[in-house]
Amino acid sequence: MALLNKFLSGGKSQPLAAAHGQGGGQAAHGGHDAHGHDHHDQEGMKVFGFWLFLITDVILFGTLFATFVVLRLNTAGGPTGAELIEINGIIISTFILLTSSFTSGVALLEMNRGNKKGLITWLVITALLGASFIYLEVTEFIHLVNEGATIGTSAYWSSFFTLVGTHGLHVSIGLVWMVALIIQLARRGITDVTKRKVNVISLYWHFLDVIWIFVFTIVYLMGVM
Question: What is the pTM of this model?
Answer without folding.
Answer: 0.80
